[in-house]
Amino acid sequence: MRFDVVSIFPEYLAPLELSLIGKARTDGLLELAVHDLRSYTQDRHRTVDDTPYGGGAGMVMKPEPWAQALEDIAAAAPPAPDKAAAPSPGAAPARKKPTLIVPSPAGEVFTQQLAYELAGEDHLVFACGRYEGIDERVLEWAAEQYTVRSVSLGDYVLNGGEVAVLAMVEAIGRLIPGVVGNPESLVEESHSDGLLEYPVYTKPSSWRDRDVPEVLLSGNHGKIAKFRREHQLRRTAARRPDLLDKLDVSNFSKTERNV
Ligand SMILES: CN1CCN(Cc2ccc(Cn3ccc4ccc(-c5n[nH]c(N)c5C#N)cc43)cc2)CC1
């Protein structure tokens, strides 16, 4: 998997050099390059924005620097075969388009399911907009050589796409085999089974007069699993009832439905 990120604030992406993603890069499990959009400008002021057509507050990001950057990145990327394309005898193997993720408050919401989907891609390119956004024609033009997806981190307003890209790269990168030491820890995660995760505890077993639930010290794995499942359901019902609506509760046991 290769990640390319374009931003006018490349230093914003420095945290991706740390921790799991940083180690995965060092170990060659993934590639990640951050590009300064201003290096694709042609004027001496390195201009990336201008006033919006139709009026309105703020500035809009000019299309040309984005086109230069995205052409450069697509051209530099090693060709990935399109495994889904039917081979045609005598023709060059079909190249899979890289995916361009454009963070936006107006995008489809980023979910764990989308993280899994994107973790299966060979090449993800992230366009971090700023100001009031990127000229819409860039997304239209980019569709010739990219699969373009506008994605939102959630229903709140940020000042640009960098924070969203930090979250998305971490959520996607950790799903790449080998990045997370113990793949088991990817199985029982919030949202992986549609429920929020259960509460976790560690030593000491008694802390400031608060004890770890006895069942967790029992060694009875059946009871522990039951305790954890019940607390997943309780927590989800209390904090995210919307997730329960999406689940097929017919495969819940009677007691689970009454938790
Ligand atoms: C006329 N007005 C009408 C209101 N719009 C709305 C608006 C448009 C951009 C911005 C700032 N910004 C620029 C690039 C960029 C990328 C992602 C996000 C973002 N915010 N929240 C998420 N979950 C995000 C993600 N992912 C924000 C961004 C702020 C507010 C502006 C134009």
What does this structure look like?
It is a single chain. It contains eight helices and nine strands. It is an alpha/beta fold. It folds into two domains: 2-173, SPOUT methyltransferase, trefoil knot domain (Alpha/beta knot, 3-Layer(aba) Sandwich), CATH 3.40.1280.10; 195-257, tRNA(m1g37)methyltransferase, domain 2 (Trp Operon Repressor, Chain A). The strands form three sheets. It has a five-stranded parallel β-sheet. Strands 3-4 form a two-stranded antiparallel ribbon. A hairpin with a 2-residue loop joins strand 8 and strand 9. Helix 2 (63-76) packs parallel to helix 4 (136-142) and helix 3 (112-119) packs across helix 5 (162-173). Bound molecules: ligand JDH. Residues 56, 103-105, 129-130, 132-133, 152-154, 156-161, 164 line the site of the ligand CN1CCN(Cc2ccc(Cn3ccc4ccc(-c5n[nH]c(N)c5C#N)cc43)cc2)CC1. Ligand JDH binds at residues 56, 103-105, 129-130, 132-133, 152-154, 156-161, 164.
In summary, what is this structure?
With 259 residues, the chain is of the alpha/beta class. The protein is built from eight helices and nine strands.
